[in-house]
Amino acid sequence: MSGKRIPLVAGNWKMYKTIAEARQLVPDLVRGLANVEEVEKVICPPFTALMAVKALLEGTDIGLGAQNMYWESEGAFTGEISSKMVAELCRYVILGHSERRTYFGETDETVNRKVRAALEVGLIPIVCIGETLAENEAGKTQAFITRQVQVGLSGIQLQQTVNGGIPLVIAYEPVWAIGTGKAATGEFANQVVRDLIRPTLSTLFGEEVAHSVRVLYGGSVKAGNAAEFFNQSDIDGALVGGASLKAEEFIGIVKAAVESV
Fold first, then answer.
1. Radius of gyration over alpha carbons of the chain, in Å?
2. Which of 97, 135, 228, 249 is catalytic?
3. Lower CB count within 10 Å: N or C terminus of the chain?
4. Is 173 a catalytic residue?
5. Which of 40, 99, 135, 173 is catalytic?
6. CA-to-CA distance for 237 and 240, rounded, in angstroms?
7. What percentage of the chain reaches a pLDDT higher than 70?
8. Residue 211 falls in the annotated catalytic set
9. pTM (2 decimals)?
10. CATH assignment of 8-260, given 3.10.580.10, 3.40.640.10, 3.20.20.70, 3.40.190.10?
11. pLDDT single digits (tens) 189-217
12. What percent of the chain has pLDDT over 90?
């Protein structure tokens, strides 16, 4: 993990946790992460729990993120949430998760529209990319990952902010490792980030930006295997699914990130 990029560990609760359940979990996370300053922490609960979780995070350094949003700022789009609505509560938003692509028909093109909308209102998008098992076994990882980055980030402007950060995060999540218990190896994931994702970012935005963008790994990350990924040169943290629903596991993952700094 690069010493120049601040590690980030984000918990994606997916469609779990009612407001009452969130109010039980978050205080445990706050206590367990109270003195952890070397790593940025983000929680992404369902929309219904955002306000309750935001209140519980007041006065802490744990950030809040949403799991999705629509690209239009307002309109007759029943059931959707706009970037402006998300920005009232959150700093981060997950976009293009493989479950959104698989179950709800999202494409690289629609992800691109969402990324643009998020950046326009000052949100930091966590843009998810990753190949399926069939694509991986067919040797198509390079072509697939490159296209997802090129199209998903097409036409946007990125530059370093005054504090040296970049308002964009990439999450490499091989689809075959999400929720299956079958994580990629740290070496394989790092190779994808180092040899595919960063060079593509460099082509789009220049080498300095490409080196500064944080790239997370996601896919069956647990406290027990997190260090394998965090000790790699080009992996800057994790987008955590199921393990983020358990305080002890999520805290353990964050502490593993601290040890790798």
1. 17
2. 97
3. C
4. yes
5. 173
6. 9
7. 97
8. no
9. 0.95
10. 3.20.20.70
11. 999 999 999 999 999 999 999 999 999 99
12. 86
